[in-house]
Design a protein that fits this description.
With 380 residues, the chain is mostly helical. It has one domain (2-185, 193-377): Up-down Bundle (Growth Hormone, Chain: A), CATH 1.20.1250.20. 80% of the residues lie in helices and 0% in strands. The chain is built from 16 helices and no strands. The chain has helices at residues 2-17, 22-32, 44-67, 72-89, 96-125, 132-157, 162-180, 192-195, 202-232, 236-239, 242-264, 266-286, 290-301, 304-321, 327-354, 360-377. It starts with a helix and ends with a helix. The relative contact order is 0.16.
Length: 380
């Protein structure tokens, strides 16, 4: 349990802050636009480019994590420090270019931490035979989202600027890093697995493709849900709840599915989550207004961490059954595909919004891609 709880805290920082804190802070940054000391302000289209910089970094970080030898504990510590520093630096109004670089670096560190933490903790929990421990580990993603979203909600209610949110989240990242530092030790840890040979199979390739479809499918609401809510509800006390609700659904669903997956299997949970997410992504189109936004938050928030949990566990089990010694390679490849799918999502939104369009076309495309990913996962 100690490793699972430490992993929860690490993923809360890596994903809740390094990856997803930008989502609830973006409305605050848009509110600050026009008063930037660097000039120029920030637009929704610009927010899409900043999000894509983070996703590009996530893609590079995932490729890097799968290509080099590294001790997991060292990689986790270094990644946590990078996330803390880059978050603190976002509080400085240094202009769009500097922000893009910082979001890129945070993305690299987040992917590095996710891959190594998942492999490190799952390896140590596997002999215990307790599926709920995986739920505890991956609940860290939702917990981080709830914490970041709740902080931003409180700051918006207090009419604070986005720089205050970045500063506080950076300090939280440093505090968590200090708390878990001693848990992740490299003593008696081998880096041989990171460089071990890996035999790729068609089943593994299907996992990579389906995980990439998941990345494209979920990222539009995951990035722009608070912004879409802001368009239909002007009161921050109302639209600000969209992101904490998203994170709360992620925590509860992760723990629940961790128990049920032992009965129905990780693959079945993965397919079902794709279909539920597809419904949630399309919800704002067919149910305009607050109702569609909240349904999207529940369906997407309730499945996106579940897919990470069951997908990476299924990857580890398949690698073991096929006689490979390096599950981190497949996990890294899946994470890289996920990141590649993410890059296309915000770019499509930036293009449509910049051209005078809206979110509807991108949401429909994302929903269709998720359904295709579910079909690909069906056993043959």
């Amino acid at each position: 349990m100690r490793f699972a709880v430490a992993g929860l805290a690490v993923l809360a920082v890596a994903m809740g802050i390094g990856r997803f804190a930008f989502t609830p802070i973006l409305p605050m940054m848009l509110e600050d636009a026009g008063v930037s000391a660097a000039g120029g302000g920030l637009t929704v289209a610009g927010g899409g480019w900043l999000a894509s910089a983070n996703y590009l970094g996530y893609f590079i970080g995932a490729l890097w994590a799968g290509a080099v030898r590294a001790r997991g504990a060292v990689a986790i510590r270094a990644g946590l420090l990078a996330i803390a520093v880059s978050s603190l630096a976002m509080a400085v109004d240094a202009g769009f270019a500097a922000w893009a670089v910082l979001r890129f670096l945070a993305g690299v560190a987040s992917a590095w931490v996710l891959v190594h933490t998942s492999a490190w903790v799952l390896e140590r929990n596997a002999p215990l035979g307790r599926p709920v421990l995986a739920g505890v580990l991956f609940a860290g993603v939702g917990a981080g989202i709830v914490a970041a979203g709740g902080l931003c909600l409180a700051l918006m209610a207090a009419h604070a600027r986005s720089s205050s949110a970045w500063l506080m989240l950076g300090l939280v990242s440093l505090a968590v890093t200090g708390i878990v530092w001693r848990t992740f030790r490299s003593a008696n840890e081998s880096s041989a697995a990171a460089g071990a040979a890996h035999r790729w199979t068609w089943q593994q390739a299907r996992f990579v493709i389906a995980y990439g479809a998941y990345g494209f499918g979920y990222i539009i609401p995951a990035t722009f849900l608070p912004v879409m809510a802001r368009e239909v509800v002007g009161d921050p006390a109302v639209f600000g709840w969209a992101w904490p609700l998203f994170g709360a659904a992620a925590v509860l669903s992760t723990l629940g599915v961790a128990i049920l997956s032992g009965r129905y299997g990780n693959r079945a949970a993965w397919i079902a989550s794709h279909l539920v997410m597809a419904l949630g992504v399309a919800a704002p189109i067919f149910w305009p207004g607050v109702r569609g936004i909240l349904l999207a938050a529940l369906c997407v928030g309730g499945t996106f961490v579940v897919i990470t949990m069951v997908g990476l566990q299924e990857a580890r089990e398949v690698v073991a059954r096929e006689g490979n010694a390096n599950p981190a390679r497949l996990m890294a490849a899946m994470t890289a595909a996920f990141a590649a799918g993410q890059i296309a999502g915000p770019l499509s939104v930036s293009f449509l919004v910049g051209a005078g369009g809206g979110f509807a076309g991108a949401l429909l495309a994302a929903s269709a891609v998720l359904v295709a990913g579910a079909v690909l996962l069906v056993r043959r």
